[in-house]
Every structure is written in C-alpha cells, then in structure tokens.
Amino acid sequence: MRSMDEQVNEILSRREIVKEKRVNKRILAANAIASCVCVVLIIAASFCLPKLAVTQSESSASQYGSLLLAAPYVGYVIIGVLAFALGICVTLFCFSWKKFREQE
Question: Does residue 55 have a pLDDT over 70?
C-alpha cells in the first residue's frame, strides 16, 4: 500500500501529463489552422494575380522608386512570400505532429 505522500505525488505527476497533452493538442491545432490559412491565402492571391499586376506607364515610371512597384512582378512576389510562410507552417505542423505521436 502506498503512503499518502506517494499517492499525492502520483496524482500531481498525472496532472502534469494531462496538462502537457492538452498543450500539445492546442499547438497541433494552431499549426493546422495556420497551415490551412496559408493555403487559402495562396489560393486567393493566385486568383487575384492578374489584378495585382501593375502595368508600367511612362508617367508612372518616374514616380515609383522601387523596381517591384514599377514592374508587373508584385503578384509573383506576394505568392512567393505566402508560399514560404506555408512551408514554415507545414514544417511546424509536421514537427508538432511527430512530437504528439511520440508522446502517445
């Protein structure tokens, strides 16, 4: 038979395990949601890509100080940045999923 102190310690250790599982599930859910949001943003930006292209006119060429603003590459830059963010989100999701599966 266990003493009262051993029982209390066992209860506290189980409580910590349950808390860790909850935190890991929340992190996993947040990573999954972030990945889905990035996918939706990339798809939405892809459909809006023709609208984002800026045509260069002679009067506007002198007003812009940046090559990206004066060229029709703005949409492609936005898609690239969003794709990079998606890659980060998916990588974090995979690492969290692996950690979650190892703990179970």
Answer: no
